[in-house]
Specification:
The protein is of the alpha/beta class and 134 residues long. The chain has three helices and eight strands. It has a four-stranded mixed sheet with strand order 1-4-3-2. A four-stranded mixed sheet has the order 5-8-7-6, with helices on one face. A hairpin with a 4-residue loop joins strand 6 (101-108) and strand 7 (113-119).
């Protein structure tokens, strides 16, 4: 069993695409219309079977649920992704220089990684970690 897709709720798919493609450097996997919505997914070049779907909260949900999700997203209370990187400090500097919102500067963690954290334009929590001792 392998993970193929995971979903992040985003307030604006085009804004999210620019961030994930142009700032983080992920590949666009799918960008296609689905009824009145857009199926938009990205993923790391070296993991071609993994898709992160940048989803409009209204896609496939009742209006009240979409509203509730948008309210949670605005607070930064939805979605998180952790990316494994070779050099946490270099990734931190690269992403910070692109203007991403910093949540945590690089630091060694007791659970064996050096990591840092950012928020994407929709408030999703993104962490970048490298195993200690590399």
């Amino acid at each position: 069993m392998k993970i193929s897709h995971t979903f992040l709720q985003v307030r604006d798919q085009q804004e999210a695409l620019v961030f994930y493609r142009d700032v983080l450097g992920l590949d666009v996997r799918t960008d296609a219309p689905v009824e009145q919505y857009r199926w938009l997914s990205v993923g790391p070049a070296d993991q071609p079977d993994v898709e992160i779907v940048l989803e409009d909260p209204g896609m496939g949900r009742p209006a009240a649920d979409a509203t509730a999700m948008r309210e949670l997203m605005a607070k930064g209370s939805l979605g998180a992704v952790i990316f494994r990187v070779d050099d946490c400090d270099a990734e931190f500097e690269r992403i910070r220089a692109a203007g991403a919102e910093v949540m945590q500067e690089p630091m060694d963690q007791a659970y064996g990684v050096r990591d840092c954290a950012f928020r994407d334009p929709s408030g999703n929590h993104l962490r970048f970690s490298a195993p200690l001792g590399r």
